[in-house]
Amino acid sequence: MTSTPARNTKVMNRFDLTSRLVARLRNEEAVIGGIGNTNFDLWAAGHRPQNWYMLGSMGLAFPIALGVALAQPKRRVFALEGDGSLLMQLGTLSTIATLAPRNLTMVIMDNGIYQITGAQPTPAATTADLVAIAQASGLSNSTWAADEEDFERLIDQSLTSDGPTLIGVRIDDKPGTGTTKRDPVQIRENFMRGMGVRQPF
Question: Residue 110: which domain range?
């Protein structure tokens, strides 16, 4: 897959893209939201028991999604992560490329800033092309989404892909929509029921 340079992609809105993703899910796919605005928008786009909302630890959306994908290979798994968080865990890209789960799709929400800590610029703002880094890490099926319609096409394509997919999207600096209910035990229990590994109380 060839990658459209990030500078040629449209700047989109995280909540809109998250809503478009959730609207395309039909088979109890798991969605792992990274910390902060990424999971705020996931919550607001439509709370589902198959959603996991990361609290407090940057960079863990992709590793957690990898674990879910390996544990449940028949379930499609999506991971939503910000550029700042991914930069803290770049090693996970080569790990995912090595293990090559067939059912994992990763979405990088890149606004070039550490948004919830004061909008400091990330290296992705000026020097680091995260999709190119993913490709160099062995994730050949990695590309920038050119616009909203291209994003939807890439999501649909990933639902039948036979290997890990990574989609980069450039987003604006709008704050998250809504707020995740910050109850780690409830998040865990709901997700485990959503994955079919915990019976309802």
Answer: 6-194
Instruction: Answer yes or no: is 200 within a domain.
Output: no
What is the residue-wise DSSP string for 53-107? E--S-TT-HHHHHHHHHHH-TTS-EEEEEEHHHHHTTTHHHHHHHHH--TTEEEE
Domain holding 47: CATH number? 3.40.50.970
- Per-residue model confidence as pLDDT tens for the chain (201 residues): 545 556 678 999 999 999 999 999 999 999 999 988 899 999 999 889 999 999 888 899 999 999 999 999 999 999 999 988 898 899 999 999 999 999 999 999 988 766 666 667 676 777 789 999 999 999 999 999 999 999 999 999 999 999 999 999 999 888 888 777 878 899 999 999 999 997 765
The number of folded domains in the chain is 1
Q: Would you say residue 201 lies in a domain?
A: no
Answer yes or no: is 1 within a domain.
no
Q: Is 46 exposed, middle or buried (0-12, 13-18, 19+ CB in 10 A)?
A: middle
Within-domain flag for 13: yes
- 10 Å CB burial of residue 119 (0-12, 13-18, 19+) is exposed
